[in-house]
Amino acid sequence: MIQIKGIAASQGISFAKAYFFNNPKLEVLEKKIVNTSEELLKLDSAIELSRRELKLIKEKTSEMIGNDKANIFEAHLLILEDEEYIETVKTDIISKEINAEYALKETSDMFIHMFESMNNKYMKERASDIKDVSKRIIAHLLGVSLPNPSLINEKVIIVANDLTPSQVAQLNHKYIKGFVTNIGGKNSHSSIISRQLGIPAVVGTNNITSIIKNGDFLIVDGTTGIVEINPNNEILKKYKEKKEILKKEKENLYKLSLLKTETADNKKIILSSNIGTLKDLQEVKKNGSEGIGLYRTEFLYMTKGELPTEEEQFNIYKQILLNMKNKSVVVRTLDIGGDKRVPYLGYPNEMNPFLGCRAIRLCLKEKNIFKTQLRALIRASIYGKLCIMFPMISTLTELREAKKIFEEQKIILKKKGYKIAENIEIGVMIEVPSAAILSDFFSKEVDFISIGTNDLIQYTMAADRMNENVSYLYQPYNPAVFRLIDFIIKSAHNENKWVGICGEMASDPIAIPILVGMGIDELSMTSTSILKVRKHIKKLKFSEMKNLSKKILMCRTSDEVISVVEKEIIK
Ligand code: PEP
Ligand code: MG
């Protein structure tokens, strides 16, 4: 019976067995072999096991997230059939009299190096396929098993050093009841997606993988960040009761789903949803959301192994707009880089990925990818109320260039005879301090502003949102952050533009009274937070919150901000 405390990343309580999701170390040493025919048989059998496994993974992936995404495993299966690859391994075993795993590793490394050095994205992509496939065969040769979350068919809690955003996006929440990781922060994209999927999660525990054994019974409390390992009956009972209370609270909140959001003195605020996939629309409806304030389009690019076509994107954007009828849908153009890597684009690893070629920077380099997305969006615009925003803008020059490309694509499509909505709104995400400081100028050149506080906090505080060692500096309530937000809201309102917040701060109970007092027009969040926030706002008075926000601007530290809010709100 041990208790571990980490960072509460996604609310909810779950109980299940631990499932280790750590890639084992595959140590391959060269050995001299006398009986090469036996070694060839070993290789054939490892290839056959890999083939069966890949077929099953392909089938499961296709059931869970569709054929497109399962195609990546078809590519892996084809590598197993590649005669040049397999024959080279076999020839090496015979001629050099070496063990199968060493021969396979040498041949794979040669092909990987060859494909990686080609100046062609498709070929670079093949290199990463060979890496994956060779790892699988070597694991079978060494008799170790690789974790395969798509093959899990019983309820488990995943325990891992880390999970990437695309791994989390593909978790099947029928079986995966929660996850716990060594590293990570509350606002990493993996944590954000877990909240969207409603999977309880605790991250940043530092060393959970060295404490838990595969199969241990776990309780994950994503509300407090506590993980109980092999709890006794008394603890188990306590958590079961807590889970029941949370369920009742949630049911009561549904009564608010048809209401508009306004303060006690009738100041209206729009509460919108952040979504990442079409599936998220269910929760949007269920929780009485008033629009989509952030559609993170990058998951279209991350789960498939290749770029989505214009047609594929058009169909998805169209469905979302039709679903939302006359409510606004704010689509963010591609924001990859940082913690969201897309290996098939062939970009090298960066020393500081969050300060590197990310989001709009990448789109302005890879203009064809950007143009394709914009054309798909423009074509879909006639099906609803479309707003497009550009992420991680640092300069007005970037904004102007992005807008110019958007206008050019509009002209191209018009010439081709496409109908286009007249009222597409163009906005900027303010996430970088340089843009925040110049937000008075930015406000003149856009229709709206959306403040991405997740990044604005990390760049203002110079504290990586993924790094638990500096999480004490990742301070949403630091007065420096609130001064920037206040200036952005004033700047937008001076130009009669609306301004929203789409970072996690939008659903933070301490930040909400301050943001309301500053005059925020829209708050966009995970759908499941909307009703709780609506209830919170209904109790606030705008007139009082205005005074509160003035006090906050005179605070010196994060702790001071918290105590002022607590004193004023809880009284
Ligand atoms: C943000 O930075 O606040 C934001 C909404 O974007 P993301 O979390 O996807 O970086
Ligand atoms: Mg961001």
UniProtKB/TrEMBL annotation:
Coiled coil start-end: none
Principal location listed in the UniProt entry: cytoplasm
Cofactors: Mg(2+)
Catalytic activity: L-histidyl-[protein] + phosphoenolpyruvate = N(pros)-phospho-L-histidyl-[protein] + pyruvate
Signal peptide start-end: none
EC number: 2.7.3.9
Domain PEP-utilising enzyme C-terminal: 254-541
Superkingdom as given in the UniProt entry: Bacteria
Ranges for domain Phosphotransferase system enzyme I N-terminal: 5-126
Function description: General (non sugar-specific) component of the phosphoenolpyruvate-dependent sugar phosphotransferase system (sugar PTS). This major carbohydrate active-transport system catalyzes the phosphorylation of incoming sugar substrates concomitantly with their translocation across the cell membrane. Enzyme I transfers the phosphoryl group from phosphoenolpyruvate (PEP) to the phosphoryl carrier protein (HPr).
Family designation: Belongs to the PEP-utilizing enzyme family.
Protein known as: Phosphoenolpyruvate-protein phosphotransferase
